[in-house]
Amino acid sequence: MTSLPDRLEAGSPYPLGATCIDGGINFAVFSANAEKIELCIFSPDGKRELRRYELPEWTDEVWHGYLPDVGPGVLYGYRAHGPYEPEQGHRFNPNKLLLDPYARKLHGQIKWTDALHGYKVRSRKEDLSFDTRDSAPAMPKGVVVDDHFDWLQDRRPNTPWSETVVYEAHVKGLTKLFELVPPRERGTYAALGHPKVIEHLKKLGVTALELMPIHAFTQDRFLQEKGLRNYWGYNTLSFFAPEQSYFATDSQDELRRAVRRLHSAGIEVILDVVYNHTCEGSEKGPTLSWRGLDNASYYRLVKDQPRYAINDTGTGNTLNTDKARVIQMIADSLRYWATSFGIDGFRFDLGLTLGRTETGFDSGHAFFDVLRQDPVLGKLKLSTEPWDIGPGGYQLGNFPPGFAEWNDKYRDTVRKFWRGDPSQRGDLAARLSGSGDLFDRRARRPWASVNLLAAHDGFTLYDTVAYEQRHNEANKEDNRDGHSENYSRNWGAEGETDDEGIKATRATVQRSMLTTLFASLGTPMLVAGDEFGRTQGGNNNAYCQDDEISWLDWSRAASPEGKSLFDFTSRLADLRRRYPVLRSKSFLYGQNSPGHGVNDIEWWDERGEQLSSDDWNNPDGRALLMRRAVKLDSGEIEAVSLLLNASDDTITFTLPPPHSDRVVLIDSTRPDLREEAIGDEYELGAHGAALIAWKVAPEATGQDDGEA
């Protein structure tokens, strides 16, 4: 590094962060309550503080300065001076080195020590005490980067929501054990763009790869002390910097190249993002960035007791999106990932929290308005997790237009129906038809319901049919963590078994659940590995398992059972592509007829009779037939029927009129079936699901004039 000047020039308050401009670097950081902020420049190894500069200007609550004659690669951090008055919400301590909230690359890892706290951890005054130790040796440093990358040849897939199939995966877990990827690349961003990974995704038929958090995150102290790791990554340390441990190389372009290759294959990339809280925890947590820069601005604090953080997230703190600068930080972060890394969409962890005000959730919150009107972000896929642990913390269906929502009611209803719970037909019908009872308002569409059978949080699909109890002993919390009710059934044995009958039933039920998923209106989401029977050994909260419990075991994909399930799942995705009626863009209520007396959606029982109120409420009803129909551009009427048999016995379904030629497309009880012509009845095995299609030509006039 060239010799550093004695002082900073004034610089500019925009843009926030460290930006290479005119042969130097502009530094800008927000703090409404600081009295002085210092910029610290470090040696290339991050061990020595070379110079400390006072940021010379404060404009619109942004502190800023310009460092000439330097470029990318500079390591830096901040120290913020101001009142240390926890009872007033202020926790300034210039002894603590602070990460720039806009840092785009990090050097080093957190080294856990009590010196990272702004107070004396063991003091009887607790967080009202003041710690004078320098935290810099234990802190990662921000790195100034040049983000130029050639995106000119890149073309975003821009897959319509109604045609989207989401595949949720963990960057490391997806490929760590994938032997077709070079050893050095396994578990990294580079592997995401490997031809064999892309080939798997393309064969499966997914259109969007949704990555669990890749924002730089912390390895929590309490986990490290137990010999565990934060595997999932839901504890953000930087909203702009990619997680460094996932790189195979020293270049952040590795991630950009992977995204570009996925785009070339027609696959979008969605990020799971965590803006509801940060890694600094409660008021007794460490001072790493936001808390030291302006605790009272960044976090929601208890009214009249601002010493204490509001904990609507269950992680100790909650970001305050009532503050314009906090919304700006989130929007700037999203826009950065969209433009600099080519990201196609975002899934907001505990998205309800982002719409909170002092009085509760507000679907008209400024946060949502900012995203919806943004010329970049408004075009992307935005989905959310519609709950948190705060008051009124369940708002499924109540988000504004433009957002899709994870539908846990869909997951739970489908699981309960297939394990044989009574009185599920009515609720299941609502879920199969896009959950219009929840989402059909303000011109929202069925795609707003993200339909899932499983997610990273909870049992895998296989474990849903193999375990009735959670088995989280490896988490070292005495098996007390994780969901207690998973709506699962083991079909006769807990966990792995050699009983061929049990194994056959489990395989059938998995296929039936997948058939249900792909035949439902809404956006289907698969979890990586569910397509070949991935298991976590009954662990339904594997957030701290950075090992074989969480990593995909690709040997299962190569097994006969795994190959069979993968083939079945890919055929379902193909059927969804081929038959537009399976992914209708609009809600259907059986009120519109495409012709020949057939309505857009109809419900029947196994006798070929439409269900009465008593039938819907029959607790023993285990069979259901849903038929959806559409008029094609050719004028033909095309219909697909979904037959469901959740009973323990084979059922013969009488198919409702018109009596045209019919083809069974797929049957979960006969996985080797490849389309077969049938008559007016169909025999469906126990725990089975099937899709049956027919067409009626436009010139046909009688119910018996059909054309397959």
| Alpha carbon gyration radius | 28 Å
Q: What is the typical, i.e. mean, pLDDT?
A: 96
Structural class: alpha/beta
Spatially, the strands of the biggest sheet line up as 12-13-14-17-20-21-22-23
Largest sheet: 8 strands, parallel, barrel
Distance between the termini: 74 Å
Helix count equals: 17
Helix content: 10-25%
- Number of strand segments: 31
Strand residue content: 15-25%
Q: Which regions have little confidence, pLDDT < 50, spanning 5+ residues?
A: 699-708
Shape: elongated
Keywords:
single chain, 708 residues, alpha/beta, eight-stranded parallel beta barrel, six-stranded antiparallel beta sheet, 31 strands, 21% helix, elongated, disordered C terminus
Commentary on this structure:
- With 708 residues, the chain is an alpha/beta fold.
- The chain is 21% helix and 21% strand.
- An 8-stranded parallel barrel has the order 12-13-14-17-20-21-22-23. The chain has a 6-stranded antiparallel β-sheet with strand order 24-25-26-31-28-29, covered by helices on one side. Strands 4-3-7-11-10 form a 5-stranded antiparallel β-sheet, with no helix packed on it.
- Strand 8 and strand 9 (90-91) form a beta hairpin.
- Helix 10 (408-419) packs antiparallel against helix 14 (500-519).
- The longest helix has 20 residues, at 500-519.
- It starts with 16 loop residues before the first strand and ends in a 12-residue tail after the last strand.
- Mean pLDDT is 96; it is low at 699-708.
